[in-house]
Design a protein that fits this description.
- The complex is a heterodimer.
- By secondary structure, chain A is of the alpha+beta class.
- Chain A is 29% helix and 13% strand.
- A 3-stranded mixed sheet of chain A has the order 1-2-3.
- Chain A starts with 39 loop residues before the first helix and ends in a 17-residue tail after the last helix.
- Chain B has a domain of 98 residues: Glutaredoxin (3-Layer(aba) Sandwich).
- Chain B has 6 helices and 4 strands.
- In chain B, helix 3 runs parallel beside helix 5.
- The radius of gyration of chain B is 28 Å and the shape is elongated.
- Chain B starts with a helix and ends with a helix.
- The chains are: A alpha+beta, B alpha+beta.
- Chain B: GO terms for molecular function: 2 iron, 2 sulfur cluster binding; metal ion binding.
- Chain B: It comes from Nannochloropsis gaditana.
Chain lengths: 157, 155
């Protein structure tokens, strides 16, 4: 399969166990009783009023953890790789492994995550890269996550 | 006293002369972020008509092109890494595809998100149907599903 992939798309050997960046700390499965559902409107409004600094990543993690009960979850702030001010929380990568994706096509899985994060997307997230797999798919992929592409400047001239 | 009077007169004269020669400092312009295209200042009725026209443009592009990619930048000069990935994948499949640069039209950029109920760019449509963004295109390409889908278009 790798032989069919052009060199520019060859996956990195980033493994689930090794954080991609210092902010990519995996969130382990919690028992249902310990799950807390944050008020989604509160997350977006509070964080938006703080000019998208700091808590957006935590908010995304809480929402996805509560809704997907994932076996594995990584929320990575990739904003530093893009043409945005330092400290921004505008570009994210989500890596989620969950039984909620069983029987769902790729588009449906992505729409599920987009829906869960709709308020954050409205509030200013520019890019949301998603890897959404079932446990068996994750095992087959050996935890490999494709690297996000380099920024090309976006709308900045 | 005469010297003082003469000096004051000279200074006043110089001031009026310099006032003509040196233009006033421009008033500071408000800072406008270049991150996003400027929003329209049209009347609400005009903007509704413009938005409707943008939706019609989207429908036309999606309907008239078997493979249509809404992206940032152009096929030759993508201005976004994810858009570049999408273009690269479609090229790797030898697909015939058209692109639209959403950075050139903020209304299309906004309305395409409503059209597909998808919040980000790029967006790929095949045979009038929304397929996904660059992540989905990549997974479909790796599994062979994308080439199979595109091959069926040629039949």
């Amino acid at each position: 399969m790798l032989g069919r992939v052009p060199s520019f798309l060859v996956r990195s050997c980033a493994r689930a166990e090794a954080p991609i960046t210092s902010s990519a700390l995996p969130v382990r499965l919690q028992s249902p009783s310990s799950r807390t559902m944050s008020n989604s409107a509160t997350c977006a409004k509070r964080d938006h009023s703080a000019q998208l600094g700091g808590p957006i990543q935590s908010c995304i993690e809480r929402k996805l953890q509560a809704a997907l009960v994932p076996a594995h979850l990584q929320v990575i702030n990739e904003s530093h790789s893009h043409n945005v001010p330092k400290g921004s929380e505008t570009h994210f990568k989500v890596v989620a492994v969950s039984s909620m994706f069983e029987g769902k096509a790729l588009l449906a899985r992505h729409r599920l995550i987009n829906g869960l994060l709709s308020e954050e997307l409205e509030a200013g997230i520019h890019a949301l890269s998603i890897v959404a797999k079932t446990a068996s798919e994750w095992e087959k992929a050996e935890g490999a996550v494709p690297p996000s592409p380099a920024c090309r400047g976006g709308s900045q001239k | 006293m005469r010297v003082l009077f003469f000096t004051c007169t000279l200074l006043l004269s110089l001031q009026s002369i310099l006032g003509f020669l040196i233009p006033p400092a421009p008033s500071p312009r408000p800072r406008i972020s270049s991150s996003f295209p400027l929003r329209s200042s049209m009347a609400p009725g005009d903007e509704a008509a413009e938005r409707s026209a943008a939706v019609e443009k989207i429908k036309s592009l999606v309907g008239n092109n078997k493979v249509m990619l809404f992206m940032k930048g152009s096929k030759l000069f993508p201005q976004c890494g994810f858009s570049n990935t999408a273009v690269s994948i479609l090229r790797a499949c030898d697909a015939e595809f058209e692109t639209f640069d959403v950075l050139s039209d903020y209304l299309v950029r906004e309305e395409i998100k409503n059209y597909s109920s998808w919040p980000t760019i790029p967006q790929c449509y095949v045979n009038g149907e929304f397929v996904g963004g660059s992540d989905i295109l990549l997974e479909m390409f790796e599994s062979g599903e994308l080439e199979k889908t595109l091959a069926e278009l040629k039949k």
